[in-house]
Design brief:
Helix content: 25-40%
Oligomer: single chain
Number of strands: 18
Radius of gyration: 22 Å
Strand order of the largest sheet: 5-4-13-14-15-12-16
Distance between the termini: 37 Å
Shape: globular
Structural class: alpha/beta
Largest sheet: 7 strands, mixed
């Protein structure tokens, strides 16, 4: 992994470095809170014109991430979904649960919506600029600036791209690393049926499928992983997975609903299939892979541009590490910048040490996601999983209750 070149003027002075953050989701908002609490002047640019919709999915946060949020003063009662601390892994054969293994999870469960709301209400409104879509990165004098449709933003000393898995920042800074479709889809829904407080449940009905469900405020959140070729994805959702990285509710076709319902009826226990059937609000996410990053920081004039969280490398959700990676990277970056600004640490050296700590972790979780998918039989899509097609390959094996 490359070292950062020391830059003239990196010795700290009385002026704290200014920071522009692209992306107001979880990682960007956490980074903004950590840096503002340390005294840094921060501006956040978010492409969405309004606050997030109340439809975010289930997340798991490990204890290190929870502790970092505690230090920000974000009370866990504001965002945790309940007291659950376990995951039940349930083997399903012929639609019947046959074995359950209950494991303690080293953390707690939340939803994107609850956590984002708890974080966002703590950001000072004047620093957040919504409806700003970043189109480029340039220099003004010796400082980086962001290009937008309305003109350049004010210069900043550091630009942090935390703009998600389809990151504009990654396209600008690391264009050789492109997302690749992994051959299966996470179908997601929030059912209005209230479940009793309980654990996160993971149903495994054989190779080629996995179904996760957990109670959330007002209902239950489920994710159903099923293989699909790129052509089948386009049939279900109106475009190919490399062009539709997130499927919004209005883009979920009637055929996609039937496709998921039929698989739930064929593969899942009746209670879980029933929860899928009554779910009106649905989304979907094609699973994507990306090469491991070799750097997180790029010099731009006398400043730097940085990739964080999913903008750096989106990991598969089976790893339960997406939000955790982003929060831990943001905390490490805040520490590095604080050491530079208040303790006289060389900025390039501090940033280089930060990326050296986090790059191996990201690479490890990228590998882990592939390994989990391989074990579940999700790595290779069936030839034709389109709605109404006969079950083939992995789906035929699942329907017969076979195990890998």
């Amino acid at each position: 992994m490359p070292d950062l070149d020391p830059r003239p003027g990196s010795t700290p002075d009385d002026r704290l470095p200014s920071v522009a953050i692209v992306g107001g989701s979880l990682t960007g908002t956490v980074a903004a809170l950590m840096l503002t609490s340390a005294g840094f002047p921060v501006t956040v640019y978010e492409a969405a014109p309004a606050a997030a919709s109340p439809a975010g999915g289930l997340l798991s946060l490990e204890h290190p991430a929870l502790e970092l949020l505690d230090r920000l003063g974000v009370d866990q009662s504001e965002y945790l979904t309940g007291p659950a601390q376990h995951i039940e892994q349930i083997t399903v054969i012929d639609r019947r649960p046959t074995a359950t293994v209950r494991r303690a999870y080293p953390g707690r469960f939340t939803t994107w919506t609850l956590l984002h709301a708890a974080l966002s209400r703590r950001l000072p409104d004047p620093i957040v600029h919504r409806g700003v879509r970043i189109t480029g990165l340039a220099r003004h004098g010796d400082q980086p600036v962001l290009a937008t449709a309305g003109g350049p933003t004010p210069p900043a000393d550091l630009i942090l791209f935390a703009d998600g898995r389809t990151s504009t920042g990654r396209q600008l800074l690391d264009p050789g690393r492109r997302l690749r479709y992994a051959g299966y889809v996470a179908h997601r829904g929030t059912t209005p049926r209230i479940l009793p407080p309980g654990d996160f449940q993971r149903f495994e009905p054989g190779p080629g499928a996995q179904f996760n469900i957990a109670p959330v405020p007002g209902g239950a959140d489920w994710t159903f992983y099923l293989p699909a070729t790129a052509d089948a994805f386009a049939t279900l959702f109106g475009d190919r997975p490399d062009r539709r990285a997130f499927v919004l509710p209005h883009q979920v076709s009637a055929a996609a609903r039937v496709h998921v319902d039929e698989h739930a009826t064929r593969l899942l226990p009746a209670a879980q299939a029933g929860l899928v059937d009554v779910t009106a609000h649905r989304t979907a996410v094609p699973m994507m892979d990306i090469d491991p990053p070799t750097r997180m920081v790029w010099p731009v004039g006398g400043g730097h541009a940085i990739l964080l969280g999913d903008a750096l490398a989106p990991v598969r959700p089976h790893t339960a590490r997406g939000a955790n990676n982003g929060i831990e990277q943001a905390a490490g970056l805040a520490t590095a910048l604080t050491q530079h600004a208040y303790r006289g640490a060389d900025l390039a050296g501090a940033l280089n040490g930060w990326q050296r700590r986090h790059l191996p972790t990201v690479a490890q979780h990228l590998r882990l996601g592939t390994q989990i998918a391989d074990k579940l039989g999700l790595a290779q899509p069936v030839t034709d999983p389109a709605p109404g097609a006969p079950a083939t390959r992995a789906h035929a094996a699942v329907g017969a209750g076979s195990r890998r």
